[in-house]
Specification:
By secondary structure, the protein is mainly alpha-helical. The chain has helices at 6-12, 28-38, 44-48, 52-78, 85-95, 128-140, 172-191; strands at 101-108, 111-118, 146-148, 157-159. The protein is built from seven helices and four strands; from the N terminus they run αααααββαββα. Strands 1-2 form a two-stranded antiparallel sheet.
Length: 193
């Protein structure tokens, strides 16, 4: 599986909804629900079977990874100082925890078939697809196309795929609309003076 680099941005955007607001993850169960909703767990059964202590570890690990990726992507897009060592180490720690995959040859109707299976994932392996997506984004992405929303109070990231590369908001329906309404009100007030 080659994860989509956009997954890394979706992961970073769990820090708040469009337009700003509280963190989307306030409890360990929130991380499990997000991973399940995104369908990225290589082993959905392992995700469903997590105990409360495992969920706490996953929650803490997810927050550390999100912080590291935010730091790495922020510096990468700003083309500023070199990557912080601790953030890079955290991402590499998650990359090293890739789920183990194996192949099995089986006799099928009229020949052989190859089946791929994933060994039971540990808690540390559940975040590996996100780390892979982040690594792909940083290694193969174009920094100028990855942006933070320009709306006041919004911290969301987006990939600018617009033709003229002038997109400013994470969501036209939320942040873009608010900005346009605000600009309209400013113009109206100036006109009424």
């Amino acid at each position: 599986m080659n994860p989509d680099p956009a997954l890394a941005l979706a992961f970073l955007n769990t820090s708040g909804p469009p337009g700003g607001g509280p963190d989307l993850w306030t409890a360990p169960e929130d991380v499990r629900a997000w991973l399940a909703d995104e369908g990225i767990a290589a082993d959905p059964e392992a995700l469903a079977d997590l105990t409360l202590p495992d969920l706490r570890v996953l929650f803490d690990d997810a927050l550390r990874l999100r912080h590291a990726l935010t730091d790495l992507v922020g510096r990468w897009t700003a083309r500023s100082a070199p990557a912080p060592t601790m953030a890079l180490m955290e991402l590499n720690r998650r990359l090293a925890a890739r789920p183990r995959r194996g192949l099995e040859l089986a006799a099928g109707s009229g020949g052989f078939e190859i089946h791929q299976h994933v060994a039971r994932a540990s808690v540390s392996e559940l975040l590996a697809p996100i780390a892979e997506a982040g690594a792909l984004l940083l290694a193969e992405g174009v920094p100028a196309r990855v942006r933070r929303c320009a709306a006041a109070g919004c911290t969301r990231w987006f990939l600018d795929t617009s033709k003229n590369q002038q997109r400013r908001w994470c969501s036209m329906a939320v942040c873009g609309n608010r900005a346009k309404v605000s600009a309209h009100h400013r113009r109206s007030r100036k006109g009424s003076r």
